[in-house]
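> @MW can you paste both from yesterday?
MW: sure, first one:
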Amino acid sequence: MNQKELNEIRRRFRLDKNNFSRIFGCYVNSNREVISWIDASLGLMRQEEQEMYLGLLKKTLSGTLGRNLIDIEFSTAQVADSDEHRLLQTLRQTECKDANARETLCRKIIESLNMGETNCLILLAADAYDVPYRGKDDELQADASGDVYKYFVCAICPVKAPTLELRYDTDENFFHPSSTGHIALAPELGFLFPAFDDRAANIYNALFYSKNVELIHEEVIDAVFRVEPPMSAVEQKNVFDTALADTLEKDCSYDVVQSVHEQLRQRIAEHKESKDPELLALTVREMGDVLTNSGVPAEKVEAFQQECRRQYGEDAALNPKNIIESGKFQITTPEVKIAVAPEYSHMIEARVIDGRRYILIPADEGVEINGIGVNIPNPTKTDCGGAQS
């Protein structure tokens, strides 16, 4: 799914835009025991209650594609004949009304999910979207439908335990201790099935959501989808950092890393400006070009590419947003941490002065220490030593 397709489905989670009829699921305690099963008509709920349920479900489509939202790909064999895919298709085709299928899915999640000592709420809801035709001008034509996209969403929400709070009693005009009750929080994970690719159902893919990009709950992916869990965004960055340092060795200098970071940051900025809905991705060969442009010797570039293919896969395509932190540029030593706005990273220099390595920061004006403006005096001739780049 691309960003435009994702946004189109996200708009379905409004009271006047969807065909959700019922909310299903279960409430589970930390001992993996089902406290209650949920089967409720959305139409019989108060408006604010409907909006709260739809809000929780919609959050499983939030975050960033390739980071919080991860493509799950089924093999042809799984789609043709497998219990896991058959279960998802049954839920989709019955609009989650098959009680046995619902319980089977919930049990898979309950038995695999690691939520510690927290209770959780599992929600399921199905929708049928009459996909409007999109004209050559890219405008949607509501009166010209192309297909019906039938899908369901699953949201897995932690539940906050009750706490005592002081609440105002309007009858007594006084504050009294009162329990907040159990509160369903925003989903930690969830998924959409099938994916909405090329504005149509793609039963070969699901879209998996993880609120925490460092913890994508591989145990649930394995239990529900039976596929190899994809590498998380954090893992992708760690692999990239290690591959760069290990293969470049002494050539992994400040100037090289700064140049790589700047080139990738520029790619991200250009992609954002182009408003291309497709996910930005660079091949291993294109990553090699980035290193070449940074002055890395050809043999080191080849070593880096080989390591990337080994770690990410032969046909890997890397999302620059996952391998650099484009919003910051940070330099650390065991004693010092320096944070620089990325667009000014070129102002920092790494130099050797009188045989000692230094990181140099221009400090002509506006220098503050803990909010106090300070003056840096001009050097005298005796202060100036020999310097090497």
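MW: second:
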Amino acid sequence: MLSLSNYGMSRERGFLASFDPGAVELPLRLQPVREMARAIPQLICTGRVRALLERLPLIDLNEFCATASEAEQRIAMLHYSFMVQTYVWGEAEAPRALPACLAVPIWQLGKSLGQPPLLPYSSYTLENWTLIDPAGSIDLSNVRVLQHFDGGMDEAWFILIHVAIEARAGEMLDEALNLIGAADAVDPAEAKRCLSAMSKAWDDVNAIFDRMPERCDPYCYFHRVRPWIHGWKDNPALGDGLIYDGVEETGGAPQAFRGQTGSQSSIVPAMDALLSVGHAADPLRSFLDELHAYRPPAHRRFIEDIRAASKVRNFIEHSGEPDLKMLYNDNVAKLAGFRTRHLEYAASYINKQASHNAGNDPDVGTGGTPFMKYLKKHRDEAEAHLLPV
């Protein structure tokens, strides 16, 4: 039977880091990296952040990647990825190349961790928090952000809302595996219990998502938070991409990678896989398939294993139990509701904002896609999977 522990996950944390990111120590030679990364909010104010970042020593991390724990590598990735984004987007014109002092280490870390060499959702959210009270729970009253760009309240709240959602989704993911077991055992009573628990978890997740406007203003998000998380694929500010100086295997050619986006979170695709919510073969499907490679390998494997194992929809559809079908539909509807809320936020936080910056187009998502069309399609496809009762 599938278990969260097989993927480094837990009911209490879901896809969040299994370790406390704030408690991870790095080797002495990486202290200048950590200090520079933590100073980013102050360095941005100088107007010469690139020159300051270029002072970093070029540190070969091959030995570190071979011997360090995954937790240590992920915290190193956290700091380097924020510095990479700051270098690219910290001044008016985007650069053609990333200096070797940033390009080589993040390339090595990305290769070791199985993720592209820029800021992924995992670094921005899953490993970018620490508990205020170590004995307390992971919720909005007891977490703070470790690594910032601008460092304001809007940025911190945007990240922490996602941290809290990921933590609360842990129960849902655990019950999803129990539901697969119930379907395999043809156990309607257990399936109802699992779906009921998942529905309550969805209510909490959506309630947390609803709190975004409390401390994250749409104008501040668009102008102070969003600009830092863009990538360099399908981005007019960077054309063919970014050259990674010093990385021999690229041959000096520009590299194009998608920016950090909430679509890299594994919650929704895991629920799609569980409930057999499919998406038609089109540019949206291709985009989602491409984003899959940006997730941590264990999370990719979790989604793939659920997709391969789940017989939930077929079991419920042929169960002859209206109550079970209603609970299934309730979960599909709440999944669609989450997508609807995302669509509403995209409209108010991005699409309605004006921009004169080619790299921060209000009609293009941070992943490099026409997001409004895609989000609507996602929502509609989820709703189309409701079962007749």
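> thanks! The chain has a mean pLDDT of 93.
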